[in-house]
Amino acid sequence: MSAFRLNAYDVPVVPATVQADFPGFSFDTYRDPPGQVWADFIHDIDEFVVVAEGQVEIEVAGERRLCMPGALVSIPAGVRHTLRTSKDAGSVWYYGYGKFGGRHGRA
Q1: SS3 letters for the chain?
Q2: How many C-beta atoms surround the C-beta of residue 46 within 10 A?
Q3: CA–CA dist 96, 100 (Å, integer)
Q4: What angle do CA 29, 32, 37 make, to 5 degrees?
Q5: What are the Cupin type-2 domain coordinates in residue numbering (predicted)?
Q6: C-alpha–C-alpha distance, residues 84 and 71, integer Å
Q7: pLDDT-based confidence at 103, cuts 50/70/90?
């Protein structure tokens, strides 16, 4: 199963909608400058990322996609991932940590 759902949310992305979709997860917002790279992270808990503004190239376990606003990326615990914001403009993305299961499609 792919970590990526590229059109998961309508644009503009409403933060409260994303937060409601992930009960039991933390929720926060990153605002990255052009060219920001978060490389080779591994967490001991599941993470979701939803792109709200800009373009972010996201790589999860070797699978790479250019994610636009509305994209949802589900990153399982223990999996290496990297986020690269476009060099042309910054990005805004919502994220949270918790445990996938049920409606999130992962046990």
Answers
A1: CCCEECCCCCCCCCHHHHHHHCCCCCCEEEEECCCCEEEEECCCCEEEEEEEECCEEEEECCEEEEECCCCEEEECCCCCEEEEECCCCCEEEEEEEECCCHHHCCC
A2: 21
A3: 11
A4: 115
A5: 33-89
A6: 14
A7: low
Secondary-structure class of domain 4-99 per CATH = mainly beta
Domain ranges of the chain: 4-99
- Which amino acid would we find at residue 91? S
- pLDDT tens profile 75-87: 999 999 999 999 9
Task: Tell me the per-residue pLDDT of 9-18, one tens digit each, with 9 for 90 and over.
Answer: 999 999 999 9
